Amino acid sequence: MLNVSPDDNSDEDVANEVGNMGLDLPNPSGCFNQRIQQASRRKQWKLNYQEASIYLEEGLNNDKFNTHPQSHEALPAYEVAHNHWFYSLDLLAAIMVMLLAACERPAVLYMQLPVGVHGSLEMLCLLILSLDLGIRMKWLGWRSFFGHRRTFFKTLMVLLMLTESIVVLVRQENHFRVTRALRPFFLMHTHYCQGVRR
C-alpha cells in the first residue's frame, strides 16, 4: 500500500506539470507577484490543453508524434500549417501548377499563354508551395524537416522548378523540361490527397 504524507504535494505536482510546449516558459512559482503568477499558470494550462488537442489530432490522422511542436514558439507555425484555409491555398497552387502544363509549348494550340505570363504564374504557384515548406521548417526544425523524405523531395523539386522558371523568364523561351512529369507529386503532397498517399 502506498503511504502518502499530508505534506506531499504529488497529486498537485502531477496535475500542474507543464507539457512540452510550456517548458521554455518562466516558472510561475518563482514569481512574487500574484497576478503575474496566475497569468503565467493560465498560459501554461492553455498550452497543456492545446498540446493535448494536438496529440489527439495527430492520433486521429495517424501521424507520427515526432512532428509534434516542441516549444510554444513553434505552435503558431503548426497552427498555420494545419489551417483549412492554408490547406486550400496549397491545393489551389498544386492544381494551378498542374493546369499550367496545358498552356506550355507544345500544348493545345488555342490555350497557349505568352511565356512571361506563364512563367510568372508558375513562379507564383511555386512560391506558394515553398511557403508551405518554410512554415513546416519553422515548426519542425531542421533535423525533422530534412529527415522526412517526402518533404525533402518536395523541397528539391520546388528549388529545381523555380530555377527552371527563372531560366524560362530570362530567355523568354520554353524549353524541354523533364520536371513537368513530377508535377502530380505536388498534388499528392496536399492535405486533401493524404488518402492517396497511404
TrEMBL record:
Membrane-spanning segments: 85-102, 109-131, 151-170
Signal peptide interval: none
A cellular component annotation (GO) from this entry: lysosomal membrane
Residue ranges, annotated region (Disordered): 1-22
Protein name as catalogued: Ion transport domain-containing protein
InterPro entries assigned: TPC1_animal
Coiled coil: none
Keywords from the UniProt entry: Membrane, Transmembrane, Transmembrane helix
Membrane among keywords: yes
Source lineage: Eukaryota, Metazoa, Spiralia, Lophotrochozoa, Mollusca
Keyword Transmembrane: yes
GO MF annotations, alphabetized: voltage-gated channel activity
Domain of life according to the entry: Eukaryota
